[in-house]
């Protein structure tokens, strides 16, 4: 008798801790992480950098951006592993409180659904490039969006299985494209030539951090399945080295070689039809992470705002449809502006969570005690005004302060404002109210 499928099987601990006995091996999580970084969006980012910067300027922009991303990834990844919680739920006890975590979850969902639309557009364009230009883009985008939604519907296990195929395939593509590029171009020439366009260093670093800052902040979404801190270290370090440095810098060289920032044109010229096919499959791998974390963020948002627990599988279906519509209407055309916005708005979230969890430790006792019972703390701060002040201050500083690197500025300002505010604020008001949960 065939087993029946139920949406209840797809929730994947969206609002609870992942039990220790349900944790996965480092290799499975690492492949998912590599899949979210060794992807076409990193080549797109590298191509944009290479079109506007010399190789060495692009190199240093990538190095600086990668250090920021690694610091954020590892810090929050460790918190996710220790607590077994997704970023959205963890943020309830790392500065944002119950209602602030709803804002974080909603913001992540909007951002990641936008990424889903961008990647799905690339997915559909790749299929059209292979099969024929007479195909309808809206039709193909709808089909590819549905395909990714089905994969994410089944959660972490299906994503791990997909990564086993997609990651090696994409790395083969990169090796092939590199060989084709160096067969016709001198490496020395590519590294010393003037770029076709113009891009400032501060803008480049912001693009690097913006390109994966959301991915860094949602690192707990996958490291909550990790078994120890050492696993988190290797997951984040190897992912950053392969994705940001290797793939990103190869994108820079390819843009120099082809003289274009259009990644599909670059891949097609270097590898042909089969290369485009591999791009399609690797894009599917990245997009499942986008949709997965988006579904976790919305699950938290709905539970906080409406006091209703909606199954993550149902949310996945709704977001998958919405993201597919975004790709059909052309969200990819706003790619650079999208990266720049993310590089300023989201870093303060990471700074606030990091300082609250590792330095101020305001909720660590409650987290430690509830972790021993594999439950959630029974009390949650409603929302601390200093959190919103620090977040807004960091974002505005990153936007308006033109000296330095906007993404770093936004993190530093938010951290300083939050830390000092939390030290001074209690002196001027009564203790912040808490609410009791039923977890």
Keywords:
single chain, 439 residues, mainly alpha, Hydantoin permease, 18 helices, 2 strands, globular
What features would you describe in this structure?
The protein is mostly helical. The chain has one domain: Hydantoin permease (Orthogonal Bundle), CATH 1.10.4160. 74% of the residues lie in helices and 1% in strands. It has 18 helices and two strands. The chain has a two-stranded antiparallel sheet with strand order 1-2. Helix 5 packs across helix 6 and helix 17 runs antiparallel to helix 18.
Compact overview of the structure:
This protein has 18 helices and two strands. It has 439 residues and is mainly alpha-helical. It has one domain: Hydantoin permease.
Q: How many helical elements?
A: 18
CATH topology: Hydantoin permease
* Percentage of residues in strands: under 5%
Under CATH at level 1, the class stands as Mainly Alpha
Count all strands and give the number: 2
Shape: globular
Tally the structural domains.
Answer: 1
Sheet with most strands: strand arrangement: 1-2
Radius of gyration: 21 Å
User: What proportion of the residues is helical, as a percent range?
Assistant: over 70%
CATH homologous superfamily identity: Hydantoin permease
H-E order: HHHHHHHHHHHHHHHHEHHE
| Biggest sheet architecture | 2 strands, antiparallel
What is the residue-mean pLDDT, rounded to a whole number? 83
